[in-house]
Amino acid sequence: MSGDAAAELRAGAAITLVAGHPEGAFLAGGTTQVDLTRQDVLRPGLLVDINHLPLAGVEDLPGGGLRIGALARMSDVARAAGVIERFPMISQALLLGASAQLRNMASMGGNLCQRVRCGYFRDVNSPCNKRDPGSGCAALDGFHRGHAILGVSDKCIATHPSDVAVALVALDAVVHTRGPGGERAIGIDDFFLLPGDTPDREHPLDHGELITAIEVPAVPMARRSVYLKFRDRQSYEFALASVAAAIRVEDGTVAGVRLALGGVGTKPWRARHAEAALFGQPANSGSFAEAARQELAQATPWPQNAFKVELAQRAIVRALSTLMDGAAR
Ligand SMILES: Cc1cc2nc3c(=O)[nH]c(=O)nc-3n(C[C@H](O)[C@H](O)[C@H](O)COP(=O)(O)OP(=O)(O)OC[C@H]3O[C@@H](n4cnc5c(N)ncnc54)[C@H](O)[C@@H]3O)c2cc1C
Ligand code: SF4
Question: Is 165 a pocket residue for ligand 2 (Cβ < 6 Å)?
Answer without folding.
Answer: no
